[in-house]
TrEMBL record:
GO CC annotations, alphabetized: membrane
Subcellular location: Membrane
Record's keyword terms, sorted: Membrane, Transmembrane, Transmembrane helix
InterPro entries, per database record: Memb_transporter_dom
Topology in membrane: Multi-pass membrane protein
Principal cellular location given in the protein's record: membrane
Superkingdom of origin organism: Bacteria
Pfam family, any one: FUSC_2
Organism: Cryobacterium gelidum
Protein name: FUSC family protein
Transmembrane segments: 42-60, 89-108, 114-132, 139-156, 162-186
Residue span, Integral membrane bound transporter domain: 52-176
Length: 387
C-alpha cells in the first residue's frame, strides 16, 4: 500500500521519465543487436551474395551459363575473421580443382558408370580427408560428382564455368569482408573474459555461503558445475584466439593497437584458477554429501573457511588492471592464513579430519598465486596461441 501511495503521488512526474527511459533502453537494445558481430556478418553475406549474383552473368564464355555457383562461392568465403576467410578460400579452391582433375581422369579412362562414380567419390573422400585440405576437403568428392553427373558430355565447359563462378564468388566475398567493417573481435573476447571472471567469483561465493547455511546445505548447484566451468574456459580461450586471429591482415587493427598478451596472461591465470576451483569443489562436496569421497569438515572451521572463500572470490572478481587487486589479494591471503591458524587450534580432532581442509587451503593458495601478476603459475600452461 505504501508503494502504491508513493507511485500515485509522484505519477505525473515519474511515469513519463520511466517511459522515456524504457524507450531509450529499447533503442539501445536494437542498436546493439543491429551492430552485433552476427548481424553484421549476416548483412555482409547478403551483400556479397547479391554482388556475386549480379556479376555472374557478365563472365565470358561458358561460365555465364552457370551463374548460380558465384553466390555459393561468396557464401563459402565469409568467415568471422579475414585470415580464416582467406585460408578457407584457398582450401575450397584447392578442393574444387582437385575434384575437377579427379573427374577428368575418370572421363579419360571410362564413361561415367556406377563403378567409376563410386571410385571417384571414394578417392575424392580419401584425398579430402587429408589434414592440409581443411574445409576444402569435402568439396573434392562433391566437385568430382558434379562434373561427372551434371557436366556429363559437356564436362569441360561445366568444369570451367563451375570453377570460374566459384572463384568469382570467393573473390567477391573476400573483398566484401575486407572493405565493409572487417571483423575485429577484440572487444567481444574481453567481454567474455570479464564475464568468465565474474562467473568464477560467483561460483566460489556460492560455496562460501553454503558452508554457513544449515548443514547439509540446501543449495547444491555449485557441486555439479565443474564441467560447466571447464566448458566456459574453453569458450573463452576460443574467443581470445579468434580475437588474435582477427587482427591479422585487418586494416582496423592498424588503428587499434590492442595488445592481447595481457589477455592471454589473464586467460591462463583463470584457467589455472578453474582447475583449483574444481579441486576444492570436489573436496567440499565430499565433506557435505560424502560423494565422490566421504570427507570430514570440523564444524568449528566452517565460518573461517567461508570467510576465506569470500575473500578469494573478491580477489578473483577484480582484473589485473584494477588498482584494488593487490589489496584484495593481500586480504584473501590473510583470510587463508586465518584458516591455517584455526586448523592449528583444532589439531586435537586428528589428521584425518583436518587433511581435507588442508587440501582446500592449498587450492586457495594456488588460486591466489595464479592471480598475482609476476608469480609462477600453478599448473602447466596451455598453449597461448594457435600459430
Amino acid at each position: 500500500m505504501m508503494r502504491e501511495g508513493i507511485l500515485s503521488r509522484w505519477e505525473p512526474e515519474t511515469m513519463p521519465r520511466t517511459g522515456a527511459l524504457s524507450g531509450r533502453r529499447s533503442l539501445d537494445w536494437v542498436r546493439r543487436g543491429l551492430m552485433s558481430a552476427r548481424a553484421l556478418q549476416v548483412a555482409k553475406i547478403s551483400i556479397a551474395v547479391a554482388i556475386a549474383w549480379s556479376l555472374a552473368p557478365l563472365m565470358p564464355g561458358t561460365a555465364k551459363d552457370f551463374p548460380y555457383y558465384a553466390p555459393l562461392g561468396a557464401l563459402l568465403s565469409m568467415h568471422p575473421t579475414l585470415m580464416r576467410s582467406l585460408r578457407s578460400a584457398v582450401q575450397i579452391l584447392a578442393g574444387v580443382l582437385i575434384g575437377i582433375g579427379l573427374a577428368g581422369i575418370v572421363l579419360i579412362v571410362s564413361e561415367p558408370t556406377v563403378w567409376t562414380l563410386s571410385f571417384a567419390v571414394g578417392l575424392g573422400t580419401l584425398i579430402g580427408g587429408m589434414k592440409w585440405m581443411g574445409v576444402g576437403g569435402e568439396y573434392v568428392p562433391i566437385t568430382a560428382l558434379f562434373v561427372l553427373i551434371i557436366g556429363g558430355p559437356n564436362a569441360d565447359g561445366y568444369s570451367i564455368g563451375y570453377a570460374t563462378q566459384i572463384c568469382l564468388g570467393i573473390v567477391v566475398g573476400l573483398a566484401v569482408n575486407l572493405l565493409i567493417v572487417p571483423p575485429l573481435a577484440i572487444r567481444p573476447a574481453r567481454e567474455r573474459l570479464s564475464g568468465f571472471r565474474k562467473n568464477l567469483a560467483t561460483h566460489v561465493t556460492e560455496i562460501a555461503e553454503a558452508l554457513v547455511e544449515r548443514w547439509p546445505p540446501a543449495r547444491d548447484e555449485w557441486a555439479t558445475q565443474g564441467e560447466a566451468l571447464n566448458a566456459a574456459a574453453r569458450r573463452v580461450r576460443t574467443a581470445v584466439q579468434t580475437a588474435d586471429e582477427s587482427r591479422k591482415g585487418n586494416p582496423r587493427a592498424w588503428f587499434n593497437r590492442a595488445n592481447l598478451d595481457a589477455d592471454y596472461d589473464a586467460l591462463l591465470a583463470l584457467e589455472n584458477v578453474t582447475f583449483h576451483i574444481r579441486n576444492l569443489t570436489e573436496v567440499l562436496a565430499g565433506m557435505v554429501w560424502g560423494k565422490p569421497i566421504p570427507l570430514e569438515l570440523p564444524h568449528e572451521l566452517r565460518p573461517v573457511l567461508s570467510a576465506a572463500l569470500h575473500a578469494v572470490a573478491e580477489a578473483i572478481s577484480v582484473g589485473v588492471d584494477d588498482p584494488r587487486q593487490p589489496q584484495f589479494l593481500d586480504q584473501a591471503g590473510l583470510a587463508v592464513e586465518s584458516v591455517l591458524r584455526a586448523m592449528q587450534q583444532e589439531i586435537g580432532v586428528g589428521a584425518g579430519s583436518l587433511s581435507p581442509t588442508a587440501a582446500i587451503v592449498i587450492d586457495l593458495q594456488r588460486i591466489l598465486m595464479a592471480l598475482r601478476p609476476g608469480t609462477e603459475q600453478g599448473s602447466a600452461p596451455a598453449p597461448r596461441r594457435n600459430r
